[in-house]
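Feature request, filed as a ticket because there's no other form

It would be nice if the structure record came with a short human-readable summary line next to the tokens. Right now we just get the raw output. Example of a typical job, pasted below so the devs can see what we mean:
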Amino acid sequence: MKKSLLLGAFALLAAAACVTQGVAADWKPVDGILLSKFAKDVDPAQPLPEYPRPQMVRADWVNLNGLWDYAILPVGEKFEATQGEILVPFCAESALGGVGKTVGKENNLWYKKTFEIPKEWAGKSVLLNFGAVDWRCDVWLNDVKVGSHQGGYCPFTVDLTAALKPEGKQMLIVKVWDPTNDGVQAIGKQIKNPHGIWYTPVTGIWQTVWMEPVAKAHITKVRPVSDIDDMTVAVFVEAEDAEGATVAIGDKTAKVVSGKATITLDVKGQELWTPDNPKLYDFSVTLAKGGETVDKVDSYYANRKTSLGKTPDGITRMMLNNEFVFQHGPLDQGWWPDGLYTPPTDAGMRYDIEVLKSFGFNMLRKHIKVEPARYYYACDQLGMLVWQDMPSGDTAHYIRPSDPDAERSPESVSYYETELRQMFYSLDFFPCIVMWVPFNEGWGQFDTPRIVALCRTLDPTRLVDCTSGWSDRPCGDVHDMHNYPGPGMFPPEDNRATVLGEYGGLGLPVKGHSWKEDGNWGYVKFEDQNALFARYNALNRAMRPLITKGLSAAVYTQTTDVEIEVNGFMSYDREVIKFPVDKMRKSNEALRGPEMKTEIVIGCSRNEAKVWKYTFDKPADAWNAADFDDSAWKEGEGGFGTKGTPGAVVRTTWNGSDIWIRRAVELTADQIANPEDMLAYVYHDEDAEVYINGVKIAEFKGYQEYYYADVDVEALKSALKEGKNVVAVHCHQSTGGQYIDFGLVKEIPAK
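Raw output as currently delivered:
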């Protein structure tokens, strides 16, 4: 797409125009905090130099990122002296900001920056744009207050024109106050006392700060809305001080009325946007007033539709471009060890998405955080569907699954709805976003049907998930289950799709690449990458029949480790990818293909009892050999374990630490053919090892209810034979419920 070249050129222009940034050599990240693999690429003279608003590009701009003066002072105390320098746009608590201090509700965070206006901007209005500031901020230029804003996640603009000096240095002052979870505003995962799934506070500027010159009459927003059924794109344009002016896209024009104009483009013959073919189309919008062009912006659109529909089996599912595409991807928190909310570099931000694409994912759920515009632009370019969460807040009103909706205060409701509207207004441009998620797990959930209706009013073109997990209300477009480790699903409904909004959470700490070396946390933890992938692959196999039954989407927890959570595909510093890329892609892409059928090679006892020989006493070393004499062992029906073990079918009680079981089966030549297509079908609680004719073909760690698991194919090839085969299993239990059952199946590719 040629736009990427344009933005690269604009980034160079911004770099050339970048104002003096101070003595960059004096800056360094805060010591003792884990740094990402991209920290080394941070240039303190020009951090994040890329053009920050790819959906509405102007040629002329100046990036103000870099070293600013700062001070943290008690609320009410005047800002008279600085305490050092902070690297904008990294927050005060971050390592990359160079400060590494908690601010808290008792203090204000002050910023000071001097700059000069390019001479070429004379006679123009000058706009100061903030990507995001958490949370409440006031702005002064040359001792004149020029603006205020409240809300921690979305961009806002301040007009500097009236306060500018005719020439020379301009002095910018920004004051920020952020109560984190002492307030009722949206905070996402931030908390004063980070622990578990709650993370470090973020205070102050955390996205790019930049200036641009505009005419008094100028474009303020461009929003293309595609209609693939008619193959048209309606481009909605908003403009300031432009009544009666003319908006043009190519040879199509429209008059600005009440600050708005609409132009409809005929796009017949163009390609549809999909994750496999993320085709974007460029266009430019001009604004003319009094016969003269006063503004021009470059933008883009995609031909894409998100909706509900019924598949031929009569099941209501999520549709993309009127077709069912199983949406599968991670819960994506968007946190960084060194920048917290802010990625160290644009390349680092894109890297996360690129890794997910290499894994074969086509979707991510942006979890209670809003990203910079360039993030969604990257998703548009790379072909990544996005479910966008509204950041949660008002922690005093987090409800349990069985509770009614919370009753938040008028102030709390006002904060929520204001920031919800800000989020929709700033993100409704991006075609990658296919669903809005206003609530997560009852966190501040209130007045759910009304909020869903508000979401539909703000954007009738996308789906709405009334709440992801826990406290479902009979509204919205999907019924969303959270199930760890899962998978699982609710039954299909006539008017809503069924989705798995969170599952997985398989954890593997990586020494030397973790936020903390001890005290890490995951829903299920593993000791090596092979066991980790085996369990992940088993979850995917268990999901295949759910898709057939009606599951529309699944969200795995999660993209990266975050602080003490170690259940990421990557380590928190992005140095280590914990999963084999090629195997992940094969496993994930299989979910979007025809369902694989299986045939039983060696049956288990889940549905029909199988008789085994067994002993609780440690046998001789050759206990797993085909010719071992097990005549002294007891005989019993599988499975073996204790009553009450979840999902177990206990027919013979085993309540000690160890059990050894053996069983002889007759197999034909056809049954033993193609061992490379064979899988174990097993329930183990806990560690188990499996032998066939004395050859070890599989080993399983921990516990897992019935699932399909990989076996050692080469060992299986050497073990299986036509005629009599002896299966031998040892299972060891340490605590809690216990159970063992084993079978072997062969996958039959769908025709």
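Something like this underneath would help us a lot:
The chain has nine helices and 44 strands.
The CA atoms of residues 310 and 316 lie 4 Å apart.
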